[in-house]
Amino acid sequence: MEEPSNVTEFVFLGILQGWKTQRVAFGFFLMLYFLTILGNLLIVVTVNFSGHLTSPMYFFLSYLSFVDICYSSTTTPKMMTDLFIKKKTISFNGCMIQLFAVHFFGCSEIFLLTVMAYDHYVAICRPLHYTVIMNCSKCQILVLIIWIGAFLHSIIQIVLTIQLPFCGPNVIDHYFCDIHPLLKLACSDTYAVGLMVVANSGMISLIAFFCLVISYSVILFTLRTQSAEGRRKALSTCGSHVVAVLLFFVPCIYMYIRPTTTFRADKLVTLFNTVMPPMLNPLIYTLRNSEVKKAVRKLWTEKIIFREKYSE
């Protein structure tokens, strides 16, 4: 018979020790978080208020930036606050909410990157049918499917975790609530739950990654028959997407494709996964995309002109 759960809060060990180190880290992470919010908000505003970025690629890019803002915000603000607190606690309910949010937005990003790869495949391999296959209503349906799929994935994570008995200790060797550190604290056998976590989280990451590899392999094969200019343009667009995919998927596969075990490197890997891709995605997609850069310049030029006229 399982012991009843009597843990009402969890204590994080955090990522760093020592007041001086933590204060320096706070400044560093604050800068990264500010760049993440600013960069992704810029893309959301540019795509939604510019009349030129109307293709499905930019529609999905806008949603990716929104997801990146939310994904980064589920862990980074709490982590930065904890750098100034000696006892880094979170309530049991708060922990479950954070676990749900991290997996909901993380899974949304996985599905979005996969759909964006499909969009590139259709644009390059079936250009004559592109406007029919990727019309506005179908893009909206795909986004709805992404939200539903991410919600179901996260609900499964919560159901697997919340029914476990936590009777002490309550110290999590991490900086946020994730599935593997929580399973380590459960006072019951978690082997079966660990297998379900691999089937749920690990296989989603792995299958989506293989789909992306196949998609880009087909794209590269198709590009052989196109002109040099067409190849250059397509490779530029797909290249940025491949970089974003690798930055996000490699840490996810490392974390969730294995059984319920924890390693010293886990905190650094998840830190990279929750901080770096959301910050780098705006740079990856804008620096290599002339249309986005033109739209940003035009939008801010119009804003400056409007302000000057309004102030007169």
Give the topology, please.
Blueprint: E1 9-12, H1 19-49, H2 56-73, H3 76-82, E2 88-91, H4 92-125, H5 130-133, H6 136-162, E3 171-172, H7 179-185, H8 191-222, H9 228-256, H10 266-287, H11 290-311
Parallel strand pairs: 1-3
Antiparallel strand pairs: 1-2
Helix pairs in contact: 1-2, 1-3, 1-10, 1-11, 2-4, 2-10, 4-6, 4-8, 4-9, 6-8, 8-9, 9-10
Structural summary, described in words:
The chain has 312 residues and is mostly helical. The chain has eleven helices and three strands. The chain has helices at 19-49, 56-73, 76-82, 92-125, 130-133, 136-162, 179-185, 191-222, 228-256, 266-287, 290-311; strands spanning 9-12, 88-91, 171-172. The mean pLDDT is 85.
How would you concisely characterize the structure shown here?
The protein is mainly α and 312 residues long. Helix content is 75%, strand content 3%. The chain is built from 11 helices and 3 strands.
Number of helices: 11
Tell me the Rg in angstroms.
22 Å
Shape descriptor reads globular
Extract low-pLDDT stretches. none
Structural class: mainly alpha
Oligomerization category of the chains in this entry: single chain
Work out the strand percent.
under 5%
Look at the structure and give the mean pLDDT: 85
- β-strand number: 3
- Widest β-sheet, arrangement of strands: 2-1-3
> What helical percentage do the residues reach?
over 70%
Spatial separation of the terminal alpha carbons:
77 Å
State the order of secondary-structure elements, H for helix, E for strand: EHHHEHHHEHHHHH
* Biggest β-sheet description: 3 strands, mixed
